[in-house]
């Protein structure tokens, strides 16, 4: 009766030692930010880790041939016609294989106000300069600036962390395949779930950075060359406005008559009394004159 319990204890001790060695190896090879993510996962007993001696692998270095830059540009252009310029910008975006992110157009509503439009677009980074040159041809460039941020170190860090976390995932999967008891399987499964969650988060951040490096963002502001007064309304809009005003006036007049009728109905008893008194006085006065 004692042999099965001893075998179970030895199996649990072996699984714990193997799991502790894998976690120790991963924490040693992953950069500090990744170690913090793995630190929150359940760790086997200290005695089991001490019995497992494994050398940590160095984090792989990803070579970079050139800086990985996120470029952003902003430009203000004075144009003769904002509407035509917007159409031209759309054509430029299509030629440059870019995307229109947002368009905010403001029509002049007051005298001496300008017709303006704010456009945000993105184009492949290798076509940024040529796109800016095409946009500059729309009119007169009032201001232009370009900013760049090197994210090469972040890309290398994310790639190294992904490599090490995937190695940890593979090792944990092997341990899970060899685990015997339900408790050991659940422990390894929990650790495997934490590692996979970290992989998904870092992979999303890596893809986001790579996308920002591949495509540059341009914020373009178009302004009309001259101020324009309030635009003249069409005949149809003026007729429609007159019709609306007249129907509204008729409605108000009708409501006023109804209100007046209600007031007269409410005060009608007093009017009847006054009218009766006036009629009686009139008869009395007439009879008096006739008698004389």
UniProtKB/TrEMBL annotation:
<protein>
    <submittedName>
        <fullName>DUF4349 domain-containing protein</fullName>
    </submittedName>
</protein>
<keyword id="KW-0732">Signal</keyword>
<feature type="signal peptide">
    <location>
        <begin position="1"/>
        <end position="28"/>
    </location>
</feature>
<keyword id="KW-0812">Transmembrane</keyword>
<dbReference type="Pfam" id="PF14257">
    <property type="entry name" value="DUF4349"/>
</dbReference>
<keyword id="KW-1133">Transmembrane helix</keyword>
<feature type="transmembrane region" description="Helical">
    <location>
        <begin position="260"/>
        <end position="282"/>
    </location>
</feature>
<dbReference type="InterPro" id="IPR025645">
    <property type="entry name" value="DUF4349"/>
</dbReference>
<keyword id="KW-0472">Membrane</keyword>
<feature type="domain" description="DUF4349">
    <location>
        <begin position="68"/>
        <end position="282"/>
    </location>
</feature>
């Amino acid at each position: 009766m004692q042999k099965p319990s001893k075998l179970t204890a030895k199996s649990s001790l072996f699984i714990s030692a193997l799991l502790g060695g894998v976690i120790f190896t991963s924490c040693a090879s992953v950069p500090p930010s990744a170690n913090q993510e793995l630190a929150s996962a359940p760790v086997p007993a200290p005695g089991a880790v001490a019995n497992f001696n494994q050398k940590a692998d160095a984090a792989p270095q990803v070579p970079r041939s050139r800086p990985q830059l996120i470029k952003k540009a902003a430009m203000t252009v004075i144009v003769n016609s904002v509407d035509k310029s917007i159409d031209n910008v759309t054509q430029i975006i299509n030629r440059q294989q870019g995307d229109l992110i947002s368009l905010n157009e403001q029509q002049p509503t007051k005298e001496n106000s300008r017709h303006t439009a704010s456009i945000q677009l993105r184009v492949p980074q290798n076509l940024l300069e040529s796109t800016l040159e095409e946009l500059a041809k729309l009119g007169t460039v009032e201001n232009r600036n370009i900013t760049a941020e090197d994210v090469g170190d972040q890309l290398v860090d994310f790639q190294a962390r992904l490599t090490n976390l995937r190695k940890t995932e593979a090792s944990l999967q092997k341990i899970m395949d060899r685990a015997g008891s339900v408790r050991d399987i659940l422990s390894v499964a929990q650790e495997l779930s934490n590692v996979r969650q970290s992989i998904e988060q870092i992979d999303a951040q890596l893809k986001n950075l790579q996308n920002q490096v591949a495509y540059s963002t341009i914020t373009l502001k178009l302004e009309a060359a001259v101020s324009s007064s309030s635009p003249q309304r069409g005949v149809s809009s003026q007729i429609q406005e007159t019709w609306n005003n007249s129907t509204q006036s008729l409605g108000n007049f009708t409501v006023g008559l109804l209100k007046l009728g209600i007031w007269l109905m409410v005060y009608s008893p007093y009017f009847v009394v006054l009218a009766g008194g006036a009629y009686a006085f009139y008869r009395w006065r007439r009879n008096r004159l006739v008698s004389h």
